Amino acid sequence: MACSVPTGWAASFEVRVLLFLEHIVRFHQSRSIPEKLMKITVVGAGNVGATTAQRVVDKQLANEVVLVDIVEGVPQGKGLDVLEAAPVEKSDVKIVGTNGYAETANSDLIIITAGIPRKPGMSRDDLMNTNSSIVKSCTQAAVALSPGAVIIVVSNPLDVMTYVAWKISGFAPHRVMGMAGVLDAARFRAFIAMELNVSVEDVNAFVLGGHGDSMVPLPRYSTVAGIPITELMDAATIERLVKRTRDGGIEIVNYLKTGSAYYAPSSSAVLMAESIVRDKKRILPCSAYLQGEYGIRDTYVGVPVKLGRNGIEEIVQIKLNKEEDEALKQSADEVRQAITRLKL
Ligand SMILES: NC(=O)c1ccc[n+]([C@@H]2O[C@H](COP(=O)([O-])OP(=O)(O)OC[C@H]3O[C@@H](n4cnc5c(N)ncnc54)[C@H](O)[C@@H]3O)[C@@H](O)[C@H]2O)c1
Q1: Which of 69, 72, 184 to mutate to test the pocket of ligand 1 (most atoms within 8 A of CB)?
Q2: Which pLDDT band holds residue 31 (cuts at 50, 70, 90)?
Q3: Residue 44: CB within 6 Å of ligand 1?
């Protein structure tokens, strides 16, 4: 059978159609999420852990979620409850609760939320050492079966617990990070939006430093539709919002009486998870191990990082003025001192 070869305008039209189709294919390839869906383990099925697992399932960030806790029945019950919500949420993600680690094998992402809250008469260092042994045992058990995972730590005291998980895992620092800055920035964003009566979507904020009293909110880098808040509010108002952000955790503890915040903390951990799972390369403030960046060494502290499939892909160094630089170094020093008091 003779094959007709297009000539003239028909040929150039065909070439243009082919080029257009190739363009569409390339566009979709560049935007599509990695083929392989993830397995995510959440350790600790308390308020933060269970809500984190629920959000992961609802957002379909994995095809499998494992929820682990030491209390018998709790991860199984909460896991089943989330699974039963999945048809309503239109999620086909499988979630299972367990008291062991066998089911967690080959996880791509491990989110550690296990820990105990401070009890009356307990010093900060007592709490640090108790949670350190919890994070240590969880990390050991989890990484033994998932040697290729990325770890996000949520347990407090955050920066020190992230150091513990890194040290115990033996992982490269870019694969172990802590969640705090995203939460602190979210709180700052919420307060800025409330103050100016604008959409939270238009508000960006940066909070660096350790999680706690020494956090370093950066008003100069916090914006509404790209305009620094220093041009939209007077210094006293900014200081009031900064203080409320710094006390954001305790404000909620005071309302709840027992327990602490978990809706915003789980949202924040899941935002980090999403950037990793979907390889989004978002720039988010996370607790990262510094090796000379910002003039800080050998400690975890909150700085902006690029988060992708391999964990921290870059530590982003922004220009700080003298005051901000000193505050960040002071905050890092406090974390380093706590690490030296740690009984690992
Ligand atoms: N980084 C942050 O910004 C941030 C925000 C909120 C809470 N947190 C911290 O997250 C942690 C969890 O908070 P929460 O409100 O969910 O507390 P929670 O008490 O509700 O839950 C903690 C869970 O950890 C479990 N657990 C204890 N030891 C364990 C072990 N060895 N293995 C597995 N599970 C174990 C407990 O049984 C409990 O279910 C706390 O340390 C809290 O201070 C951090």
Answers
A1: 69
A2: very low
A3: yes
| Chain centroid, CA 236 distance in Å | 31
Range of the domain at 295: 181-340
β-strand partners of 114: none
142 lines ligand 1 (CB under 6 A): no
Q: How far apart are CA 238 and CA 327, in angstroms?
A: 17
* Number of domains the chain contains: 2
- Of 1-15, 144-158, 179-193, 327-341, give the lowest mean pLDDT range: 1-15
Which contiguous run of DSSP H or E holds residue 274? Answer: helix 263-277
- To the query of whether residue 211 is one of the catalytic residues in this protein, the response is yes
- Residue 33 has a pLDDT of 43
What local confidence, expressed as pLDDT, does residue 105 receive?
98
Angle at 53 between CA 277 and CA 213, to 5 degrees: 85
Specify the pairing of strand 207-208 against strand 216-217: antiparallel
Please indicate, yes or no, whether residues 90 and 201 belong to a single structural domain of this protein.
Answer: no
Domain end residue (candidates: 178, 213, 243): 178
Among 120, 150, 178, identify where a domain stops.
178
Beta strand segments in the chain, E: 39-43, 64-68, 94-98, 109-112, 150-153, 176-178, 203-204, 207-208, 216-217, 223-224, 227-228, 282-291, 297-308, 311-315
Q: How far is the CA of 262 from the centre of ligand 1 (A)?
A: 10
For residue 34, the SS3 value is coil
Residue 109: pLDDT over 70: yes
Q: Which atom of ligand 1 is nearest to the CA of 179?
A: 1
**Is the confidence at residue 28, as pLDDT, over 80?**
no
- d(C-alpha 110, C-alpha 135), whole Å: 12
Whether 164 is in the pocket of ligand 1, judged by its Cβ within 6 Å, is: no
Question: What pTM, to 2 d.p., does this model score?
Answer: 0.90
Indicate whether 166 and 257 sit together in one domain.
Answer: no
